[in-house]
Amino acid sequence: MCTKYKVTFESISVVAIDDGLFGGDLEARFTFFVNGQTKVWDRTTDDVGKLGVGVTNIGTTFFVDVPVASSVIHIEVSGIEIDDFHDDNLAGFTKVWTQSDNWGQGFNQQGANNDSITYNMNYTIGCATKATHAISRQALVRMAEVKANARRIPVPSSLVLLNSSLDRLNRAGWTVMTASGDELLVEGYGNLPLLIEERFGEQRKQ
User: Is the pTM above the cut of 0.85?
Assistant: First the structure.
């Protein structure tokens, strides 16, 4: 029996929008809630692109525990359309998956509509599997150093910085499997080590 599931909001298929008198695409912000976890998907600026008719990729993932037969996967989606004078609510939905639904495993599509938008939310649910990633000590030290500087506190020793980042990884569900030289091999769910290496590992090379 699977005890941890991966819930990924893949894309949104927008059928129709109405931004009032001036028309145009929506400055949309959606909030995804899955089993107590919350993430925000923002399409409110020209940099990231506003939300128009058609299919727009999302790629927001949650990992949720389903330890017993009575557990559920509780999903809520809500949204707002941001205007200068008054924000409009966008259609949302709530869906609860249980054992009788096989916890929603596979591809799912949920429709919602109101005066501002008509869309289908496309998401997948599957049994989560652990991944292993390599991460450098320098990237971990650099991440904690940046955090210390942002808080304007004296920068601790490299060992303290490393342990701080390792503690953060541990709290996110990652376990150190092996350590050799500058590289650590960690195991867990998701891609947090890859993101850390991409951001802070590149900085140390510059």
Answer: no
107-160 pLDDT per residue, tens:
999 999 999 999 999 999 999 999 999 999 999 999 999 999 998 888 889 999
Name the band, by pLDDT with cuts 50, 70 and 90, for residue 22: low
State the first-to-last Cα distance of the chain, in angstroms, to the nearest integer.
Answer: 46
Specify the pairing of strand 4-17 against strand 54-65: antiparallel
Q: By CB neighbour count within 10 A (0-12 exposed, 13-18 middle, 19+ buried), where does 196 fall?
A: buried
148 and 95 housed in the same domain: no
- Dihedral pair phi/psi, residue 52, rounded to 5°: -120, -175
Last residue of a domain, one of 94, 127, 160: 127
From 127, 147, 171, give the residue that closes a domain: 127
Instruction: Provide the b/e sequence for 130-149 (b: ≥16 CB within 10 Å).
Output: eeebebbbbbbbbbbbeebe
Same domain for 97 and 174: no
Q: How far apart are CA 64 and CA 55, in angstroms?
A: 26
